[in-house]
Amino acid sequence: MARGSGRNPTPWEPLDTESAQRGETLPWERIAENELNNMARWSSLEETEALEKLLEQKRDEERVMPKRKHSELDNDGLPRDPMYEMILPLNALTKLSIAPELEALQGAYADSRYIMVNLTYSIPDLSVDSQNLTASIKGYRKSVWTFSEAMGDYGAFLDMILNNLQEESKNLGIALSKLQPEDKWQNRPDSEQGRKIAAVWITHYEWLERELENTWEETLRFEDEIEGVIEKRKVLEKAFDITQPRMTKEAEKRDLKNFDFPAAYNLIHRFGSVKSLAPGDRTKDGYETRLEDMISSLKRALEFANGEASYMMEKLQKSHIQKSTTESQTESQHEGQDETDENENKTNNASSLTPFEIPNLQQQIEALTATYESYLQVKIYLSDMKHDLTQHLKGKVNLPEERIQVYDYVLSGRQDSDYMKRQSGKVNEVINKKEERKRLKYRRRVEQEEKRAEKLKKQNWKPWHF
């Protein structure tokens, strides 16, 4: 439509050809563009909200700790020992002893800050890329330090949980020992005694489930910290990818020394999710890979202990608590009824229960004592490994590269292997000393017999003459 026709064009009508040729945006094009932008914005909002809901749902599902399926058979396909089943949830949690690796990773993240400081000093004064790269490295350095503190907090939390578990193994043994005099511990528990023992163990499993839930929630929070520092590492790596070609070109043009990108990428790969290809050699694994493997192993231990505790609690409830209550109710309700109905009810009640024979108190207390000593050995191991790490780091305060090598020594498993060899040597030394004491004792006895025989010979007296 021409402009001089006496009315204004509608928004959907194009302008004249001259306006279009001058590059002016046509009204209908602007309307369409706005409509598309609005649609895209609303679509983006809807997708974002849907994604947030999915993530929130996933996070809620993760917060509910899974329970590993219980197996009635051991690894050899045989029925599990009742005492083994009762103590298994508590014993399984000795695997929470990840402190040596966690401390090494904490130190590696903390000391890498100094390497990043040296990298920022080597950034040439070029264009805005230099400023952006400096800001990116400083931002990641701050994230790394914050994450190292989070690792320290998580390690302290696990130490507290291990102390709680060790204390619980002692307290549980004390509670059970009060149920009967010591001279009756070897007696097979009767119905009433079994109910009391089951009640003590159920209280223990309830406490254990609360500890497991706390540990699970704390582990999820730590996983969020891991995801955060991984995301910051990816952002820094992307910054390297973007700035490297531009800075290299500008440095060559101005005949300046370029930023040490190979060293920067080596640092990034040290942190990254890199998996060693050589079997049994974990020295090339990235820190993020080690963290993910470590947390996955810990979560499997939590899931297993949670499933076993839940299974044993249900089994004891059905076999002893509910059975005792049902039998007493059956007796009171059926007083005066004929014997046939009573027997029928007892048969129906018994058939719905899962039988579980509780071991005697002697076995239970001995098993708990062994568990307490296991946790004690774990604490000794952790203390020795921490002391060994401190000794290896001695004199390397201002040498971050050498300190990183010490952390790699721990993370590769060589520290643990060397420790076990030393412990094996100590055990062999103790055994050899015991054998030597036996030999000396036998030798003295032989010498005493020889002296006695010599003395009798001199007296010309024979012991078989009367």
From TrEMBL:
Residues 1-28, 316-357, 445-466 are annotated as: Disordered. One of its GO terms (biological process) is cellular response to heat. It comes from the Eukaryota. Residues 322-331 have a biased composition (Polar residues). Residues 445-457 have a biased composition (Basic and acidic residues). This is Uncharacterized protein.
